[in-house]
Specification:
Blueprint lengths: L2 H20 L1 H18 L13 H19 L31 H13 L28 E2 L35 E3 L8 E4 L3 E2 L7 E5 L8 E4 L6 E2 L2 E2 L45 E6 L2 E5 L7 H6 L16 H7 L24 E6 L33 H8 L10 E5 L4 E4 L8 E5 H4 L1 H13 L8 H6 L8 H11 L18 H7 L2 E3 L7 E3 L2 E2 L26 H7 L2 H5 L22 E2 L21 H9 L14 H12 L4 H4 L10 E7 L16 E6 L16
Antiparallel strand pairs: 1-4, 2-3, 5-6, 7-8, 9-10, 12-13, 12-14, 15-16, 17-18, 19-20
């Protein structure tokens, strides 16, 4: 950069400094501009060196944007906008056609909470949704919680899984504070001082490697065969498999437009699986009357939580033996093919199965039969059998009938599914060996499961934090240190580039409604990107492509919506026209997707360690160090925070904690839960349970009622 441009820039910025610092309009404008600059500054730093041809042009571009904004700011109305509002002012998104399916919302929430916490849902009769989401909506376990880099790909996108355990060396390892961060530096402020680098992931243990055989109605445990696990074993004895991405909290996830780290849980719920309109074969059955039924496609917008909910019960890592379907799960509570994308757990097209048998096992079982429900549970207390386990006088069949309209469960017809996946509605059963037969309630169990769990999770809203009370006008709700941290969060720390809006995430439904599903970066080549998904340099994109992956259906459609628009598939697979970009989208231009992940909301972040999609940072202090040095893989701008400023920022993040979450108070109270916490022994020796599987080391999470308790300890505390 030459001397004349430097002098010009100094004069220009000096002239603006008093405006920015001495006027309220200037300070507000500066905060907004910092957000814009931050969100695009990192775009200069990864994959696209041609964004601006020189450091000079980039600097002048930023200055020009500031100047234009100042001019614009002085020409608009001088009326001050409304004061910031808390999260209490934001409605949870719901599908506008929910009433076509749900007869009683309160009953559906009760069903959803029961299904979410019921250990009988899992293929092993022990693993529920809550097994990975029991602590502030996330997972605080630290033994047998490491997965190697199973999602690694080559530069051309072909699979290249890494099965080597670097952290701890072997499965069933007990994590320690000194294991973090996974990318170690001798100077945490200098990304060049690398001491060690591991591509392992700290996540959640699920089930053992096994193949589904059948359900036994009335038996919580499926019939399975145990297969030797080439990765998750200790001296040939299988241990529980660990998910290849860190477990995010479900609390406040109802505000997300899409869910899962890579966004594959679609905003539209198809009643069957996470993939919305991407799955052309997803159908449920509707009874026109009790003696006439037909296959129909359903589409519920604002239902990414329902899309997310039906994935884990059939994941061969999380809850299910490989090959199980929703109808079979429902029959044990009372096979055919498709599409749960399942590379190792869920990402690229192996281990495909149709979610059709989950119903058969649950219908005859007492809900929560293995778990005590607190008599003061805010949702289930009236139905508690305490001190005995389970719900009294309730069956899953009754709960479904109470919650959903009869056209989705009341029919004298059966649905046959033959060995080739052909489905036929018949008048009477044909118990041949070539077919599976389901009642209407069993066949539609994925529809009930997804919507009920979504409605329950939509009650898990943490909106009574010190930060929210501060936004409502209580200026003493945040300490002076936290208020300074808030200023850093919105300014020098550049946090609001991704964690924007009152939901503190650009991936929220309100953000997408305001700014569109895809947008252009305002700098340089103005490349398109999915709103709310960012590559911040946690790991190289080849370690885990994230949003850069594909859905596994014929055509291998990209998860990135911007890339779908490039291919002309946006409307067909997402149900609406793509937003109009300026300039128009070019089919050959580069899209920011590889290595990008959904920006999470930040409430209760104090309670949800470890952090990032790989779980590679163990504390908030380590997270702030990561951002301060500009990330680990050359993406973000360095922040140059002082030690005092770092602590102020951490203090503010702790001001985002809702004490109802900390102490399990309603609506965050819950039934008793027993969770596997690694296995008896260590990473060198485990105890065979007689079937080739390691004996679980089990921990009890006691039942808690609406008034809460002392909470569960934080990760590694």
């Amino acid at each position: 950069m030459g001397i004349i441009p430097i002098i010009s820039l100094i004069i220009f910025t000096t002239a603006l400094s008093s405006y920015f610092l001495l006027t309220s309009r200037g300070r507000f404008l500066l905060k907004s501009l910092v957000t814009k600059i931050k969100r695009q500054e990192w775009k200069f730093r990864y994959s696209k060196p041609n964004y601006l041809k020189s450091r000079f042009s980039r600097t002048i571009t930023i200055a020009a944007i500031i100047l234009v904004a100042v001019i614009a700011g002085n020409t608009v109305s001088a009326v001050t906008g409304p004061s910031p509002v808390s999260l209490k002012s934001v409605s949870v998104p719901e599908p506008d056609n929910l009433g076509d399916f749900v007869a009683d919302k309160t009953a559906a929430i009760k069903l959803g909470k029961t299904l979410f916490w019921d250990m009988q849902v899992g293929s092993d009769g022990k693993t529920s949704c809550a097994s990975c989401h029991f602590h502030a909506g996330a997972d605080n376990r630290s033994k047998n919680q490491i997965a190697p880099g199973l999602l690694r790909v080559n530069a051309n996108g072909t699979e290249n899984p890494d099965s080597v355990f670097n952290v701890g060396g072997l499965p069933n390892y007990q994590l320690k504070p000194e294991d973090f961060p996974f990318h170690k530096l001798s100077n945490p402020n200098d990304p060049k001082t690398i001491v060690s680098d591991h591509n392992d992931v700290s996540s959640s243990q699920g089930i053992f490697n096994s193949k589904f055989v059948d359900v036994t109605p009335g038996n919580a445990e499926d019939k399975v065969t145990t297969d030797p696990d080439p990765v998750f074993n200790v001296k040939g004895i299988n241990v529980r498999r660990v998910e290849p991405r860190n477990t995010p909290t479900v609390i406040n996830s109802a505000f997300n437009f899409r869910n899962f780290w890579d966004g594959r849980a679609q905003n539209i719920f198809n009643g069957v699986n996470p993939f919305g309109l991407r799955d052309p074969n997803a159908t449920v059955v509707k009874a026109i009357n009790p003696i006439r039924a037909e296959f129909v496609k359903v589409s519920l917008k604002n239902s990414s939580l329902a899309s997310q909910a039906v994935g884990p019960p059939l994941s061969s890592f999380e809850s299910s033996a490989d090959g199980r379907s929703f109808q079979e799960i429902g029959d044990k509570f009372g096979s055919d093919k498709l599409g749960l994308v399942d590379r190792i757990s869920f990402t690229s097209g192996k281990g495909k199965k149709l979610p059709r048998k989950l119903a058969k096992k649950l219908l005859p079982l007492r809900p929560l039969a293995k778990q005590i429900v607190h008599p003061q549970d805010s949702v289930l207390g009236k139905d508690s059998k305490s001190p005995k386990p389970g719900l009294k006088d309730r069956t899953y069949e009754q709960m479904i009938q109470d919650a959903f309209k009869p056209e989705w469960w009341n029919s004298t017809r059966l649905i046959q599914v033959d060995s080739d996946g052909k489905r036929t509605i018949v008048k009477r059963p044909d118990r041949s060996l070539q077919t599976n037969e389901y009642t209407l309630l069993e066949y539609n169990f994925s529809l009930f499961f997804g919507l009920a769990v979504q409605l329950y999770e939509s009650t898990l809203i943490a909106n009574d934090t010190p930060y929210d009370r501060y936004l409502e006008g209580n200026t003493s709700a945040l300490t002076a240190q936290q208020q300074r941290g808030k200023g850093l969060f919105e300014g020098k720390g550049l946090c609001i580039g991704c964690h924007t809006g009152v939901e503190l995430t650009a991936a929220s439904a309100s953000s997408v409604a305001k700014e569109g599903r895809i947008k252009r970066a305002p700098f340089g080549a103005k490349s398109p990107e999915d709103n709310g998904f960012f590559n911040i340099g946690v790991r190289p994109p080849t370690d885990d492509p994230g949003l850069g992956g594909h859905d596994g259906f014929p055509g291998s459609n990209p998860l990135s919506e911007a890339r779908l628009a490039q291919l002309g598939k946006f409307k067909d697979l997402l149900g609406e026209n793509p937003p109009t970009l300026s300039p128009p989208l070019n089919s050959s231009e580069t899209v920011f997707a590889n290595g990008a992940f959904k920006a999470p909301g930040l409430r209760n972040v104090e309670l949800t360690a470890p952090y990032f999609h790989n779980g590679g940072q163990g504390t908030l202090e380590q997270v702030v160090d990561f951002y301060n040095r500009g990330g680990d893989f050359g993406v973000l701008p360095p922040l140059n925070l002082s030690p005092e400023e770092k602590q102020e920022l951490v203090a503010f993040l702790k001001g985002l904690t809702d004490d109802r979450v900390r102490y399990d108070k309603a609506p965050f109270d819950h039934p008793q839960l027993f969770i596997p916490d690694g296995h008896v022994g260590n990473s060198n020796s485990v105890v065979d349970d007689g079937t080739g599987k390691a004996t679980d080391d089990t921990v009890e999470i006691p039942a808690v009622g609406r008034n809460g308790n002392s909470g569960t300890p934080n990760f590694l505390s």
